[in-house]
Design a protein that fits this description.
The structure is a homodimer of 483-residue chains. With 483 residues, chain A is mainly alpha-helical. Chain A has 22 helices and six strands. Helices cover 69% and strands 5% of the residues of chain A.
Chain lengths: 483, 483
């Protein structure tokens, strides 16, 4: 008896291997082309076309064996020209799925390379919820054609899916529902399922609705399997469960999935009518995208860059952040200029001032990181906030005396001036206090204003501790050392 | 006919409400205590004890209705004294699960407050894979008792689970497997399942093994449901699927779950024997924990702080980062001190130098963020790396001329010196070049050394662009303006 072989692990390593083999094939093809280019002649061209055909066939076989997400990964890693030649080899019936998986900038390059009819064909392979995700990147006439080709019910779904804001549960939702009535026996449900070719992905529960599509409960597949077939749905269905609303925040839904270890959750509209479901894979994608957006934002990039994008496109992606920082640096510079007279008399101040500003910024960012986390964990309320300020002040004083003391001793030893050392320690402590106060205040204020405290707080605190640090240190020095 | 009520959404908002009600009850109880404390007397004590009993009963009812993850959330948000009084009200049979859900520092405070017997009882409610997660925080004698109380098979599982490094698939794995043989009819499988009280959570597939526990395939529940009961497992089982190895990197497993939209995946040892499975909820927790660790690291915190932790504990959590930054700031300060003579002659340099250093740091961090992402996406190979360096250099020159030009014009206007403006523009461009080169070089080197390029790159590049920026600007000024 022949035994079926289990496919080997397809983790990162295996995908990397596939990538290298494809790069290899592309290199070989390039080599042949270069050869012909150099030597010319009809015979070389014949050899080229034969070898090329062989390479292309091998490439196509390799691509066909890969999951759309892996093809997407490989497309991301290829420089533009090769990306497009691989794209041309991808079977037309997989293009839609792959377009969904690639990143925004790569998607744009692929779509720009496709004919309208090709795009319409790719889009038509997708479910309406997937189509809604792709729609913003498609040319208008393509979307018009796709829209016209849809059955009426799906048109409605597409319109609904596209109407939600990006951060709403509705934008995560799909429409692959299996619904049952509560007065059926499990046996009937089992027979009904057997008539389907397959169940939607991630079906861990069937949704129980009444005639008006109002959600009445859910029948977990597990219960369907372990209970007596004669039992009614009503008697084993679950009614204590998470129900999402289509206009809830997607972020709240993601937290609920993490907290309650869900695979799917039903989504209802305001009238408690079932309109769709959210699956854990959509939640995972959402979490990854958010983490990536946060990472890019912290690093000062507006959006993910295709490493093969033009210099011009990349530069523009980085300008907003550089411009903001240039303005704050310019302000700090103007603060220093107020004390040019003092620095002229004691140039050591110019040497030491970046330390005071820098450590203030680091400390302020620590406080902000701690606070953003506490806000996300719901640990902040008016009573706690007061305690927290007291605690941060205590830490600032402690750190100011310890680290400010150390650096003060250094300054004293280097410049043979006890007064300079004391000014250094005092300025460091004061700037750490400024960092602590604003480090608590900025995220709280942003939350109160309904903004995400993780975005922009870092730039603000650094601007304050830079200008503040220079002002405190140079101001103190002017008062103490020059009079 | 009475209709079952569906429980309302339990998203963030509802949990917050529960938290506020509990805080309210705790406040009332405190009020009663304070009153008695002030007025004394046996009658007041009677009133107190009656009211307290009432409040406690209400608290207990509320807590009993909450999911363990929600109780964990509420415990996190309470100051230590109240946290412990709520903890005392939690039913003993839920303590184990809740200990798993709370963060490390809060878990420590709760465990420190519990008697050994209580801890043993809590631990014994857990599955072996959960126990392995909790074990490092439990006192040794408690673990000894728990270990002795386990059946032999589970002892082996626990020993195995505890032997994996934190970043291995084995550490994510659980042992809740349902296995079947390939020569059974689906009907037999269905009957077998019906004999179980319930299936393990997240059972989307049964694992098909032979007599030696070697993995042969998987039977998705969906196929079990839609296929004819007479069909054999062998004929409908899946053999093309993701198989993890217990010593694979957990990070690779997480990527595979995202990529292939999995709910569970089988885990085998080196001899292809099925040893466990990974479920998507464990993957979600892993991803969240990694994202949080990364966020804390970027913010300069060693680990998550309990906002109610002591000043001393919090300060120590922040010292490593401050110490590193103090050293780099000190080095930058020494670089400036080399040019004290120059600054004395032209004090405007002290005013302008932080701009050159600061923008260099921002730009370097942008390059690093872009590169870390590209490395994670597998976009970096030797051929691409060379192109990338060229591109980053081009962006640096462009940005240096544009932004350096703007700030140079400002400097020129402010200090009426064309030469100073030119030095400013040139220094800015050169420092952006340094930022670009090291911004590409540092993450590549770290990856080559097998380290995570996201950790520590930012501190390094900032140190280089600070000291480098001061050196370039002041050095150029010394050469051009003073000779």
């Amino acid at each position: 008896m022949p035994t079926p072989e289990i496919e080997q692990t397809k983790t990162q390593e295996t995908v990397q291997e596939a990538l290298h083999k494809i790069l290899d094939l592309l290199d070989k093809q390039q080599l042949v082309e270069d050869l012909v280019h150099k030597q010319g002649g009809p015979r070389q061209e014949l050899v080229e076309s034969l070898l090329q055909k062989q390479h292309m066939a091998e490439l196509q076989t390799r691509l066909a064996a890969l999951h759309p997400a892996d093809i997407a990964y490989i497309l991301e890693a290829l420089p533009p020209a090769r990306r497009l030649s691989v794209w041309d080899l991808v079977k037309a019936d997989r293009e839609g799925e792959i377009l969904l998986e690639v990143s925004e900038p790569v998607r744009e390059t692929l779509i720009a390379h496709m004919e309208p009819e090709e795009l319409v064909a790719a889009a038509e392979q997708l479910d309406t919820d997937e189509l809604a995700d792709l729609a913003p990147d498609l040319p208008e006439d393509v979307m018009d054609d796709v829209f016209k080709a849809l059955p009426v019910a799906e048109r409605e779904q597409l319109r609904a899916a596209m109407s939600y804001r990006d951060e709403a549960v509705g934008a995560l939702m799909d429409f692959d529902l299996v619904t049952v009535r509560e007065d059926l026996a499990l046996e009937v449900v089992l027979r009904y399922l057997r008539r389907l070719d397959e169940l939607p992905d991630h079906t861990d529960q069937l949704f129980v609705v009444d005639r008006r599509e109002t959600l009445r409960g859910a029948l977990p597949i597990n219960r369907l399997l372990v209970n007596d077939p004669e039992v009614l749905v009503r008697d084993v269905m679950k009614t204590d469960m998470l129900v999402l609303h289509d206009d809830d925040d997607a972020q709240d839904a993601a937290q609920a999935f993490e907290r309650y270890d869900l695979v799917t959750a039903p989504v209802t509209d305001r009238r408690r009518r079932l309109v769709g479901r959210v699956t854990v894979d959509a939640v995972l994608d959402f979490i990854r995208q958010r983490a990536e957006a946060e990472r890019l934002n912290l690093g000062g990039l507006r959006e993910g860059e295709d490493i093969f994008a033009s210099v011009w496109a990349s530069a523009r992606n980085r300008w907003a952040w550089l411009a903001v920082n240039l303005v704050t640096a310019f302000i700090a510079s103007r603060v220093i200029s107020v004390f040019e007279g003092t620095i002229e008399k004691l140039v050591a101040l110019a040497t030491l001032m970046p330390i005071v500003a820098g450590i203030g910024g680091n400390s302020g960012n620590q406080t902000i990181t701690m606070l953003v986390r506490a806000i996300a964990l719901g640990q902040i309320n008016p009573a706690n906030a007061r305690k927290l300020v007291t605690k941060e002040i205590a830490i600032a004083v402690l750190n100011g005396l310890v680290w400010g003391g150390i650096i003060g001793l250094f300054a004293m030893a280097l410049y043979k001036s006890a007064a300079l050392g004391l000014v250094m320690t005092a300025a460091m402590t004061l700037n750490l206090l400024v960092a602590a106060l604003f480090g608590v205040f900025i995220p709280l204020l942003m939350t109160k204003l309904g903004r995400d405290p993780a975005v922009g707080s870092s730039v603000l605190i650094t601007a304050i501790t830079d200008s503040g640090g220079f002002f405190i240190f140079l101001g103190l020095a002017t008062l103490v050392l020059l009079h």
